[in-house]
Specification:
Strand order of the largest sheet: 1-2-3-4
Radius of gyration: 32 Å
Order of helices and strands: HHHHHHHEEEEHHHHH
Strand content: 5-15%
Shape: extended
Number of strands: 4
Number of helices: 12
Length: about 375
């Protein structure tokens, strides 16, 4: 599906202008029809024979996992995958006449189900792999306390370097880190939020590979917005004028009104919002993501991004008001600001003879 999506995105980009607006509608429709047909053929070849068995194995693995906040949502996702599979198989059993508008409509109606499988079908295979994971090594209470105290002391010294983190099947946050002591690095695993009190060391290892084999495996990470679009089903992008074009318009402008209009374009809101407003939206969404990490450090960074978003919103309003004032000046650049002529090296005249190379002096004769 990733290969199909990449190919079709290139075709869709070719059907749009430089601002992202679709201008070749027939080419766009043909690209989407090719996408739907290729995705359905791929699903029929690779998933139809195995999807039911895969979903049953995933449900069995999910039943064996410890209860956690995400298990109910995973069960709903598996049910939705099963429902989409039924719809796809039903269409494959009763295909429309090839090459007709009815076939294109049938394929288009199946695309949301195919995209849902492409985005979430890996959950089923991930669940079956979790069922076969080896048990993790467990430290004694005394060992956990000793290693936790050493790690806490290293964190106070600034010598606990975090490597990566993931969530285990039971909902615990697991983080790998380097514990630096006397110029030696030890890979340790922490359970809990490293930025909040209460975390503890659950293992120490020779290297990251050994830690990965001994620790609980990672479960699929969550999504920022449950109803957000997927990479396989993105909405058509809104028209947007690149910031570098706005900068070029200012450099090439001769009157204040032209620059005023460019600043308006950078700060306009709505469907075709300008780049400054898009940057504000980016900061707001990044703050939302940081808060959704559900960690102390994530909430701190989220608050920081929110503050930056408010500063940028104030700046957008100031730039918009400056555009009003600049347009009201009805001024133009003074004529003494003339362009610099291009520097061209003069060429020799066509009648000029090339310089004569002086004859080389004869080499002195060698005496025998």
């Amino acid at each position: 599906m990733s290969v199909i999506d990449l190919e079709i995105q290139r075709a869709l980009d070719a059907a749009r202008d430089r601002y992202g607006r679709t201008v070749h509608h027939h080419a766009e429709a043909a690209a989407r029809a090719r996408r739907d047909q290729a995705a359905l053929a791929t699903y029929a070849t690779h998933l139809v024979p195995h999807a039911s068995e895969l979903l049953n194995a995933a449900r069995s693995a999910l039943d064996a996992l410890p209860p956690a906040r995400h298990t109910h949502a995973w069960r709903e996702l598996l049910d939705a995958l099963a429902a989409s599979h039924i719809e796809i198989v039903r269409a494959l059993d009763r295909p429309a006449v090839p090459g007709t508008p009815a076939e294109r409509e049938q394929h288009a109606a199946l695309w949301p189900h195919l995209a849902f499988w492409a985005e979430n079908g890996s959950l089923a295979s991930d669940l079956t792999e979790m069922h076969h994971q080896p048990p993790a090594t467990v430290l004694t209470a005394e060992e956990r306390q000793m290693w936790t105290e050493r790690a806490q002391a290293a964190r106070r010294r600034g010598e606990l370097d975090l490597i990566e983190s993931w969530y285990a099947a039971d909902g615990r946050l697991v983080t790998l880190a380097y514990l630096i002591e006397d110029d030696t690095d030890t890979v340790i695993a922490l359970a809990g939020d490293p930025g909040a009190p209460g975390w503890e060391v659950i293992g120490h290892y020779d290297n990251e590979y050994a830690a990965g084999r001994a620790l609980p495996g990672a479960v699929p990470p969550g999504v920022l917005r449950a109803d957000g679009s997927s990479r396989f089903n993105r909405p058509e992008p809104a028209p947007e004028q690149p910031l570098q074009e706005l900068l070029r318009d200012v450099i090439e402008a001769r009157g204040a009104g032209d620059v005023s209009e460019t600043l308006y374009a950078a700060t306009q809101t709505g469907y075709d919002a300008g780049p400054m407003v898009r940057l504000e939206q980016l900061l707001t969404t990044a703050a939302e993501f940081s808060h959704a990490l559900d960690t102390v450090r994530g909430r701190q960074i989220g608050a920081r991004l929110e503050a930056l978003g408010r500063h940028l919103a104030f700046l957008v309003r100031e730039v918009h008001e400056a555009a009003d004032d600049l347009g009201a000046t009805v001024a133009v650049l003074p004529p003494h600001r003339t362009p610099t002529p291009p520097r061209v090296r003069p060429r020799p005249a066509l009648t000029t003879a090339p310089p004569v190379t002086p004859p080389r002096a004869p080499a002195p004769a060698h005496r025998p």
